[in-house]
Design brief:
heterodimer; A: 4-stranded parallel beta sheet; B: mainly alpha
Chain lengths: 306, 321
């Protein structure tokens, strides 16, 4: 049984190659299916090039459109607000409804976690599912894009995306020179002082600039998975040189921060070095981390100019 | 309580030594000048971040404990806590609406306050319309209102999952973000409620013998109950709106006082006030030092240390008495 399957794949590959040689003028060679893709839910076999993709992950949505799979996407969840072309529906990635998802007749569903038995339910209905949780490192991000490229038949698009992201990050870091070296920062996720340490995805990006995270001692053993809650007192005495706000969407701004009790004595507040980040960009490990790196670069340029 | 306040002021992630704190406190008093040797940052941390947090912890603890004692007296129910009539669920709903609709943190306190009051008002009118003046119908109405408010809250959370973490953190109680502004907001409620409850503490003893007996003694049972409930509820709603839902203080503190100092509300009410303040200030010290410089939610601390302590107290008293 297994042998025949392999034989079939080889045969398909052979015919595809043969087809390639005859039509060598096409820009992108047709990718062979079925493919096996690695995801959080193990090895997933996708039989045919998917043409009716549902993305229940706002990060995956950004990746799909970036690698050129946008035309194959028929529906995205209610949090997928970027890019504008994404066909947003009221499907939810947090509380997904199996029937609602199946009513779109998808041939591939991408989720960021399994809230219960969603994956099992979709697989039972014969729909392949890729689960991709938040990237922990920039390498994770490249692997996720690569996997999406393979799964959707856009391998070259994925390579192009990854190359562009890598180049974008490098450019942002190069622009900053050594402005960032040793500069201390506080990255605020919420107004009750949840933050991200160097060990997180976003911390890694700050690290590319040589910056130092004030919150690292608060999660030295990693028990908060890099997202500890720290105290106001600690932030003020640590006196970070730049404050980055990832919670602008929730009404925080340079102004609200400077009005907090006791914060007016902080160097970053006095010198106005409070950078307001796009809340979506600063919470999704997708292609727009280049924008995130550029905001850091801009903040550092401002910081260096005084 | 003095010890708790002292510990609260002296301990924190910012390393300020004991003498400097004392010197700075002395220096802050009028007509006294002491060289405290603190930098401006340390001085600010002490007076604008640590100090208000300690004071607010004390106020919230005092309010919750005294309101719990009052509820237990009025309803003659040992399990009554300040959240009995739906204040917590109503305030939780209000806070969730604030998080979900605007995300502007300025709306959280007022909406939580309004939610708490509306919930209790509904509970009260339901309880009266159903069962006249019995306390059982009131408590059951509170259960129904709380369940209803929680259902709406859960629905809103499911529809606005991005606010889940913020709401959750609020539900566990938080003193992390407070300054003098919150203290000033809460202070009038704390003072008025404490005054009313201290003033009516003898009447709570009379109520304890039963509605009919109390009426026979010339007490207007309905009115006393109404005044006590309003005072306790207003103060609780105000406390909850600034600090989130801090559990357990309202039950554990009055009962501990009762075990050590007897059953008269003349004693329980004022002592609950003091011990409640002390308990929460200590809990907050634990919240910000155990995993320093990270924070623990204070609601977790009160339950984690409160529950075993309470069991211990119960066991000890059973053994000796």
């Amino acid at each position: 049984m297994r042998r025949t399957a392999i034989a079939a794949v080889l045969l398909l590959a052979a015919t595809a190659c043969a087809a390639d040689t005859t039509t060598s003028t096409t820009a992108e060679p047709a990718q062979e299916f079925p493919v096996t893709v690695e995801a959080d839910n193990g090895s997933v076999i996708i039989e045919m090039r998917p043409e009716a993709i549902i993305s229940l992950s706002s990060t995956a949505t950004e990746m799909l459109f970036d690698i050129g799979a946008g035309a194959q996407v028929i529906a995205v969840d209610d949090q997928s607000n970027y890019p504008q072309a994404a066909p947003m529906t009221d499907l939810s990635g947090f509380t997904p409804n199996l029937e609602a998802i199946l009513s779109f007749q998808p041939d591939l569903v991408i989720v960021f976690f399994d809230p219960g038995d969603l994956i099992a339910g979709l697989e039972a209905a014969g729909v392949p599912v890729l689960s991709q949780g938040s990237a922990f490192t920039v390498d994770d991000l490249y692997r996720q894009i690569e996997a999406l490229g393979k799964a959707t038949g856009n391998v070259e698009g994925a390579v192009a995306s990854n190359t562009a992201i890598q180049a974008g990050l490098e450019a942002a870091v190069t622009t900053s020179g050594d402005f960032g070296e040793g500069v201390t920062y506080y990255h605020e996720i919420s107004s009750d002082f949840y933050t991200a340490t160097s060990s997180t995805f976003f911390g890694e990006i700050y690290g590319l600039f040589g910056m130092e995270n004030i919150a690292d001692p608060a999660d030295a053993d990693g028990s908060a998975f890099g997202f500890p809650q720290i105290s106001s007192e600690f932030i003020v005495t640590s006196d970070p040189e730049i404050i980055f706000l990832a919670n602008v969407f929730y009404g925080e701004s340079a102004e609200t921060v400077s009005l907090r009790p006791g914060w007016s004595v902080m160097t970053a507040v006095r010198n106005g070095h409070i950078a307001e980040l796009d809340s979506d960009v600063a919470s999704r490990g997708g292609p727009r981390i280049v924008e995130f790196a550029e905001s850091i670069s801009n903040a550092l340029a401002e910081f260096a100019s005084g | 309580m003095v010890a708790a306040a002292g510990a609260g002021l002296l301990v924190g992630p910012a390393d300020i030594d004991v003498w400097s704190v004392l010197a700075a406190m002395g220096d802050a008093l009028p007509f006294i000048e002491i060289n405290h040797g603190l930098t401006e940052v340390e001085h600010t941390v002490l007076f604008e971040i640590r100090f208000p947090r300690v004071v607010l912890g004390g106020l919230v603890g005092a309010i919750l404990a005294v309101a719990g004692a009052a509820y237990q007296g009025v309803f003659r129910n040992a399990l009554a806590d300040p959240y009995l009539l739906g204040v917590a669920a109503g305030a939780g709903l209000g806070a969730t609406v604030a998080f979900a609709s605007s995300g502007d943190s300025g709306f959280i306190a007022p909406l939580a306050f309004a939610g708490g009051l509306v919930a209790v008002a509904v509970t009260y009118s339901l309880g009266r319309s159903v069962g006249g003046r019995t306390t059982t119908s009131l408590i059951l109405a509170g259960v129904a209102v709380a369940a209803f408010a929680t259902a709406i809250q859960t629905y809103l959370l499911q529809r606005n999952v991005e606010t889940l973490r913020e709401v959750y953190s609020w539900i566990l109680g938080r003193l992390v973000t407070v300054g003098w502004g919150e203290v000033l907001t809460l202070l009038p409620y704390a003072v008025v409620a404490s005054a009313v409850l201290l003033g009516t503490r003898r009447l709570l003893d009379v109520l304890g013998i039963g509605d009919e007996e109390a009426s026979a003694l010339g007490l207007n049972v309905g009115r006393v109950r109404w005044i006590v409930v309003i005072a306790a509820t207003l103060a609780t709603a105000a406390a909850v709106s600034v600090s989130g839902l801090i559990g357990f203080v309202g039950i554990i503190v009055p009962h501990t006082v009762r075990i050590f100092f007897g059953w008269s509300y003349r004693v329980i009410v004022p002592l609950s006030l003091l011990f409640g303040a002390a308990f929460l200030m200590f809990a907050d010290v634990a919240a910000r030092t155990i995993v320093s410089p990270a924070e623990l939610p204070i609601g977790v601390v009160t339950a984690f240390f409160g529950a075993p302590f309470f069991v211990l107290v119960l066991r000890t008293m059973k053994g000796s008495g």
